[in-house]
Design brief:
nucleotide-binding; elongated; 16% strand; alpha+beta; YojJ-like (1
């Protein structure tokens, strides 16, 4: 198909140079018909692309929807700390995480507290690894995703694999990662290679600012607890 386009373009240029009006008219009409043919052939892809753009814009601009998604997730995290269940919850941002989500178990499900609790329950076959919340409307795209473990020698020896994996991903991408520790029974946030601990409301505020491109995404999250890496 590409070769056909190239040949038509070359023929059109030749007709312009040689001033072949009949050929130009024929190619003009053919070009208009070709546009319609392409729209018909790729209508599904075009529709899906426009839908994804619309959903992406909605999630990024609809602050209430964003808060609802974050609150659902943090409520699930609170329950998991009470039940001593560990979890890794990744928020994809500008840098795509398809390489990680494709290696996990595809879900593409609406985020909810019951869904997260069922995924991370120790008896669930999906509880190992991280879940990824993609940028398309806050959907949970995949579970059982393996994250890169940070090799930073300056990290505290008290940090386990879960925290090091969260830090590792945020060292390489602009993702934000919530970590639920079953041992400490606390929720922390990793962003830009840092581990931020604080009260639940501090974590919520920091996460919302990061996802909104606010101050926390540009500075060192000064309002969160100073108990860091």
């Amino acid at each position: 198909m590409l070769m056909g386009f190239v040949l038509l373009l070359a023929l059109y240029l030749v007709s312009l140079i040689l001033d072949l009006e009949a050929t130009q008219l024929l190619l003009d009409n053919l070009g208009q018909s070709l546009v319609l043919v392409l729209v018909v052939l790729f209508q599904t892809d075009i529709r899906n692309g426009l839908a994804q753009i619309g959903v992406l814009t909605l999630f990024r601009e609809n602050n209430q929807q964003k808060r609802d998604v974050v609150d659902n997730i943090l409520q699930a995290c609170h329950v998991m700390t009470q039940q001593r269940i560990g979890a890794l919850i990744v928020f994809e941002q500008e840098v795509g995480l398809k390489n990680y989500s494709d290696r996990g178990t595809q879900l593409n499900a609406k985020v909810s507290e019951p869904l997260l609790l069922s995924i991370f329950h120790p008896t669930s076959p999906l509880h190992d690894g991280a879940v990824i919340i993609n940028a398309k409307g806050g959907l949970l795209s995949a579970a059982q995703c393996i994250l890169p473990v940070s090799m930073n020698s300056l990290l505290s020896s008290s940090l386990g694999t879960r925290h090091r994996a969260a830090i590792g991903l945020t060292e390489e991408t602009d993702a934000a990662v919530l970590i639920v520790s079953e041992e400490r029974r606390e929720v922390s946030l990793s962003y830009r290679g840092q581990l931020i601990r604080g009260e639940n409301e501090d974590i919520r505020k920091a996460l919302l600012e990061v996802l909104s491109g606010g101050p926390s995404s540009r500075v060192d999250l000064q309002h969160a607890s100073s108990n860091r890496i």
